[in-house]
Amino acid sequence: MLELINVCKTFNPGTVNAKTALNDLNLTLKDGDFITVIGGNGAGKSTMLNAIAGSFQIDSGKIVIDGTDVTGLPEHKRAAFLGRVFQDPMMGTAPTMQIEENLALAARRGQHRGLKWGITKAERAEYQKRLHALDLGLEDRMTAKVGLLSGGQRQALTLLMAALQQPKLLLLDEHTAALDPRTAAKVLDLSDRIVQEHGLTTLMITHNMKDAIAHGNRLIMMDAGQVVVDVSGEEKKKLTVPDLLAMFSRASGSDEANDKMLLS
Fold first, then answer.
1. How far from each other are the two terminal CA atoms of the chain, in whole angstroms?
2. How far apart are CA 24 and CA 38, in angstroms?
3. Residues of the domain holding 115
4. CA–CA separation, 219 vs 36, rounded Å?
5. Is the distance from CB of 216 to CB of 209 less than 8 angstroms?
6. How many CB atoms lie under 10 A from the CB of residue 92?
């Protein structure tokens, strides 16, 4: 479903501020894989997701989604393949528009938009049904402005919007990092449910090693723009946080684990 082949990206090349973010990165995701991604600050995690989404052009290499080479496609054309939830709950939705209007926009992603009636009765009923499944009471507030929702409610809505058209690939970029622990746990459970219900191929970045172990069927660790650890199946199920720290030390050649990884 996703192939990253020898992907390289250096920011500010040829200057004193040159930073190699992705260094000959290779990664393959099978259809239905749910991969959690961990690594220290500057390991290349978010840069990898931005490269997949087309936020910038890579220096070299190839990005293939479901057999289609998207390497040269701009960001707006890759949107037909992708669903994405950002770290900031304020991103991913239109705050001045209603909940049902945001869902309608998501449902029409990649389609031609004419001047016909905005939201049909059938669509509104479908949105209510999907919102009810979130168990947040949003099905009774469909005309409320999204900007009035809490961070957790907005992330839950963004998740629903991202999965509405069952994208080829779902990108979750530390989507619970800005939430309190209780709300984060609820959004993670919801993520699991949506991924499983639709069989979505998913990449989820997290700094929380416990979450990385508990969710998904495969875990990768990045360092210096490369995948340095890749575990799945029974091996992943048996992992502990000390195991991951030991793996990080061996793979990075350093005994100093990243502070943010430890605190999470």
1. 30
2. 18
3. 95-161
4. 5
5. no
6. 23
How many residues are listed for the chain in this entry? 264
What is residue 114's predicted lDDT score, i.e. its pLDDT? 55
Supply 179's token pair. 């939430």
Instruction: Give me 199's structure tokens.
Output: 């069989």
The answer as to whether 227 is a domain residue is: yes
Does the pLDDT at position 107 exceed 90? no
Q: How far apart are CA 54 and CA 63, in angstroms?
A: 10
Do 152 and 42 lie in a common domain? no
Note the pLDDT tens digit of each residue in 159-211.
Answer: 999 988 889 999 999 998 888 888 888 889 999 999 998 899 999 999 889 99
Q: Look at residue 255 and tell me whether its pLDDT is greater than 80.
A: no
- The span from the CA of 89 to the CA of 155, in Å, is 6
Residues 33 and 152 in one domain: no
Convert 93-114 to b/e letters by CB count within 10 Å (16 or more is b): beeeebbbbbbbbbeeeeeeee
Residues 222, 243: one domain? yes
Give this prediction's pTM: 0.88
- Token digits of residue 67: 């057999």
Phi, psi of 144 (to 5 degrees): -75, 145
Question: Residue 210: enclosing H or E segment and its boundaries?
Answer: helix 209-214
Helix (H/G/I), strand (E/B), else coil: 146: helix
Q: Which residue has the tokens 């991103």?
A: 91
